[in-house]
Amino acid sequence: MSSAQEQCTQASLPMTLGQIDAAWLTSALRTRFPDVRVRQLTIAEVMHGTCTKVWIDLETDGAQLPGRLMLKGGFEPHSRDWWSMHQMEVGGYLHILPELRLPSPTCYFAAYDEGQKQGVIVMEDLVSSGARFCHAQHPAGLTETRQRLATLAAFHARSWQSESFAPGGDWHWVQDVACDTRDYARAFLQPEVWTRYTALPRGAAVARRFHDAAWLGEALEKLVTVSSSLPHCVLHGDTHPGNLYVAADGTPGFFDSLPGHGPAMSEVAYHLVCALDVEDRRSWERELVRFYLDALASQGVEPPTEEEAMTQYAIFLARAYFIFIINASEFQKEAVNTAYTARISAAMLDHDTAGRLSAL
């Protein structure tokens, strides 16, 4: 973090929408554009959800900046409880996405304040740039999915088995995805909590055998063991369609990263099973996994064999299932959570995820 950015962070990040004013935005943007001055700003639109997204129209002097930017931060009632998410996302925009060159929105400012447990990111407005957003209820096609897998393979390869995850390394703060998921799951797998989620429409959309909280807890524990035996790389962390876009030039893009490290097939399985319609996934997934492995090899990485990769694919579906069976309806609409859990459940049945995990 630059000294200017540290100074801006120490000066307090906005905690309410009313604190987003020309003076604060000027200080934030000066971490990248020292001569900029925001003469006027207007909050044009606000979207509430997991984080708050704020679209800002602005007039500036001293730098060539777009007339509309998007600010993302923790302005929701639940935001302080989700401080680690804000911290990880800021780290992603400051370090992971630019250093590992994963196509993403241009970031003009990102900072996390430990004392306030607040994270704020100021980035380009993708709508103004002509991007097309992906969506859970519009499954991806084959060509688009290949393009995205090729991009992910290059991204994964750049940190393959990196020593930077070790204590003292540049990425020591990046969490182990399997361990983090197992630990996070404990509170949700308590009977009084778990049954609230399985009683929702998403619960009706999945096979009854996956309503067993004890089974899922054991599965996530086993994934920690499997994960520890495999090469790790940096993962975007949340590659469902709601966090994806296609730029005006056709480049696949990624936003809302929650970076972690873990086996690459964990991310590939999560992405494919969320992004593809069930029948398309059944028809294309092995070919797409083979395509991804070839793309990894082209980046100088020795990939697993196809059968090893498909085994990893099958068992890591359990993590994808956990993410969306307990995802709050305030964060993703129930239709979206239901679409994902239905697709994941079908894939777990097709690949005998429960049987493969029980055999471990």
UniProtKB/TrEMBL annotation:
Entry superkingdom: Bacteria
Organism taxonomic ancestry: Bacteria, Pseudomonadati, Pseudomonadota, Alphaproteobacteria, Sphingomonadales
Record SUPFAM superfamilies: Protein kinase-like (PK-like) (SSF56112)
Protein name as it appears in the record: Phosphotransferase
Domain Aminoglycoside phosphotransferase: 94-294
